[in-house]
């Protein structure tokens, strides 16, 4: 017998487990698993098999995170509505963070119970911390929203939040990956709880949600997440570029510095989330709205609209023009959003997210890009009718063709490379009017 086989831990295990543990685990009883999740504190739960078509685009990432995944357990925890509705950011933020901590703790306890029963399981973070080594790419392990929809826990509203049929959008989501099948799986509900009342449109301070369903990711990200990720990076650059304390105070006032301190010492502050606050959807929520719509708007929506606050926008963006037009009493502050693609793939992926459609008005242009060097590839970007398409390879007849060295282009995007110098050195070459490249840049300020 080898030294390994004779080890006390190995011998004890084999004495207690004479049966081959490679035998497949029987499917878990869905009722038992549901009861376990609810007992641990979840307010609702649903199950999705890994092969489900609705999460096909997430499957590879899920299996990388936990290769033996057979089932995804999606669960929700309710937030206290009046806290989220409060114009006082301290009240709303404590509610978001406290409920988020509960989601992580409940997920952990469910996993611990399953592990005690010999079932392997993993609970990715509800929100933060994330995989920041991937920033600004996909920094999350599991996309909780599509999993929740597939599990029958609601549908996405026009504000891009999941609306639970009973609890409305006053929920936070958790997902658990387990190495076992379940006797019964859930399916998406057959209607969308979203009322399309457009109150989220009316409450949003940056115009991120449009009445036609368009969502301006950049506007929401720049303001609401000012003290997260890219906004924090932009603040650090303000510090680095300041000559002295007086110069810094001209860029960042005392209130903003204190808010950053609060985010660093406690948890990051959401600047708005007014879309969640204003939403009246859900069986438990809708009564106040239906009883007196005018009163609901006066009590819930109007205070958010009337609040005097600083709104963070990228210069030249649709959000900047919207705030100045719609909320002149709110103070506009021009900032960077800290999004600097570190790959061509990231650049192309981010174009639809950063696209400012009102800046593209009147454009109907096909751009061909050829990238050489470290990340050689071809792509087509079509901007027309205030929409954008990003396609692999060269498609159609281009109005302008840009050929660029990968590293040079990424430095140009990060404002570390002068494009005129790059053109002189032929590290960037343009076939067509430079005016069209300038028009392109205007769409992504």
UniProtKB/TrEMBL annotation:
Q: From which residue to which does the signal peptide run?
A: none
Q: Which UniProt keywords apply?
A: Iron, Iron-sulfur, Metal-binding
Question: What's the domain of life for this entry?
Answer: Bacteria
Give a yes or no for keyword GTP-binding in this entry.
no
Keyword Ribonucleoprotein applies: no
**Basic and acidic residues bias: where?**
1-17
Q: Where are the transmembrane segments?
A: none
- The record places domain 4Fe-4S ferredoxin-type at 185-214
Matching Pfam families, A to Z?
Answer: Fer4, SCP2
Q: State a single Gene Ontology molecular function.
A: metal ion binding
Query: Where is the region Disordered?
Result: 1-25
User: In its UniProt entry, what is this protein called?
Assistant: 4Fe-4S ferredoxin
């Amino acid at each position: 017998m080898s030294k390994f086989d004779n080890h006390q831990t190995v011998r004890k295990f084999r004495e207690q487990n004479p049966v081959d543990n490679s035998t497949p685990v029987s499917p878990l009883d869905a009722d038992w698993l549901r009861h376990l999740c609810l007992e641990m504190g979840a307010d609702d739960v649903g199950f999705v098999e890994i092969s489900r078509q609705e999460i096909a685009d997430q499957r590879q990432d899920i299996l990388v995170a936990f290769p033996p995944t057979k089932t995804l357990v999606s669960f929700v925890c309710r937030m206290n509505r009046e806290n989220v509705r409060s114009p006082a950011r301290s009240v709303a933020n404590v509610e978001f963070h406290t409920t988020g901590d509960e989601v992580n703790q409940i997920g952990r306890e469910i996993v611990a119970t399953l592990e005690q029963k010999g079932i392997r399981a993993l609970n990715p973070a509800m929100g933060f911390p994330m995989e920041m080594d991937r920033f600004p790419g996909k920094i999350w392990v599991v996309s909780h929203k599509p999993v929740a929809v597939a599990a029958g826990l609601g549908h996405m509203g026009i504000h891009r939040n999941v609306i639970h049929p009973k609890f409305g959008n006053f929920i936070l989501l958790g997902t658990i990956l387990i190495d076992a099948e379940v006797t019964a799986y859930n399916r998406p509900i057959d209607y969308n709880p979203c009322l399309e009342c457009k109150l989220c449109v009316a409450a949003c301070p940056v115009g991120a949600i449009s009445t036609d369903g368009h969502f301006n990711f950049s506007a929401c990200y720049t303001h609401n997440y000012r003290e997260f990720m890219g906004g924090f990076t932009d603040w650090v650059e303000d510090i680095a570029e300041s000559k002295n304390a007086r110069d810094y105070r001209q860029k960042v006032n005392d209130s903003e510095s204190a808010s950053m301190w609060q985010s660093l010492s406690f948890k990051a502050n959401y600047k708005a989330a007014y879309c969640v606050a204003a939403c009246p959807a859900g069986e438990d929520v809708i009564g106040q709205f239906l009883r007196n719509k005018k009163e609901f708007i006066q009590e819930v929506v109007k205070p958010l609209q009337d609040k005097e606050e600083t709104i963070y926008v990228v210069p030249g963006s649709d959000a900047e023009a919207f705030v100045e037009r719609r909320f002149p009493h709110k103070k506009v502050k021009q900032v960077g959003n800290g999004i600097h693609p570190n790959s061509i793939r990231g650049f192309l992926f981010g174009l639809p997210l950063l696209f400012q459609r009102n800046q593209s008005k009147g454009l109907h242009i096909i751009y061909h890009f050829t990238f050489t060097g470290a990340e050689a590839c071809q792509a087509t970007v079509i901007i027309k009718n205030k929409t954008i398409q990003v396609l692999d390879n060269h498609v159609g007849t281009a109005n302008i063709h840009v050929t660029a060295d990968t590293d040079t282009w990424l430095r140009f995007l990060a404002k570390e490379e002068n494009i005129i110098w790059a053109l002189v050195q032929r590290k960037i070459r343009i076939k067509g009017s430079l005016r069209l490249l300038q028009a392109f840049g205007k769409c992504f300020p």
